[in-house]
Amino acid sequence: MSDSEPTSSGPASSGSKMKDFNQRFRDLHKMRQKARKENHAQVVEEDRRKKLPKNFEAKKERDQWQVKELQDRKEAEDKGLDYERVRSLEMSADVTEKLEQKRKRKKNPDQGFASYEDMTLRQHTRLTAALDPDLESYKKMKECVGGEQFYPTADTLIHGNHYPTTSAMDRLVKDVHGQVKRREQYHRRRLYDPDAPIDYINEKNKKFNKKLDKYYGKYTEDIKDDLERGTAI
């Protein structure tokens, strides 16, 4: 074969390149279609989330937690275990204490001072919740005094018909002493501090200075220190 004879590799190479180009074009078209579908799905999902309530995610997590808690509680009951004890063992002591305090506040919430009647009712609720009634003594006392005296009306004379037991009186004394002790501890925070700096001339001026220090103390701390050291300009 002479050098001047034309070869057939030129058209074949050109056709192969065109085939590769068409294949790449089809692959790019498929990727573009896939990206368009995924983008459309994300837009639809984002629009769906925007239409949901603001607390939807928090509510969803809370519902999932409640479902898990019910499942764990049922599993513990099937095994004959106390769920509250099992859950407490899985938590740290400070978290368990905070949850217990939160549960107590929710059961008898302190909504601030409203009236002395509300404070008395709240204390009554707290004290009665701490009672451990003795049903046996209750039944014996009912049999002893009779139904009419045990459930008195406005016309019933009940003087001298009730005789508390020694154990009941001991519990009452112990409870009263406990209330006095708690009250002393509560007021102990308000006792006079002999080491506190004296920057007032009377009680009214003392309260006024405390208010000033509460709102402006962080701004005047350097000036106050300079005045005390005698280095103020």
UniProtKB/TrEMBL annotation:
Major localization listed first in the record, in broad terms: nucleus
InterPro entries: mRNA_splic_SYF2
GO BP: mRNA splicing, via spliceosome
Cellular localisation: Nucleus
Pfam family, one: SYF2
Domain of life (superkingdom): Eukaryota
Ranges of biased composition (kind: Polar residues): 1-16
Biased composition (Basic and acidic residues): 17-81
Keywords (A to Z) from UniProt: mRNA processing, mRNA splicing, Nucleus, Spliceosome
GO cellular component: catalytic step 2 spliceosome; post-mRNA release spliceosomal complex; Prp19 complex
Region (Disordered): 1-81, 95-119
Family per record: Belongs to the SYF2 family.
Self-association state and partner proteins as the record states: May be part of a spliceosome complex.
Function: Involved in pre-mRNA splicing.
Protein name, as recorded: Pre-mRNA-splicing factor SYF2
Organism listed in the record: Caenorhabditis nigoni
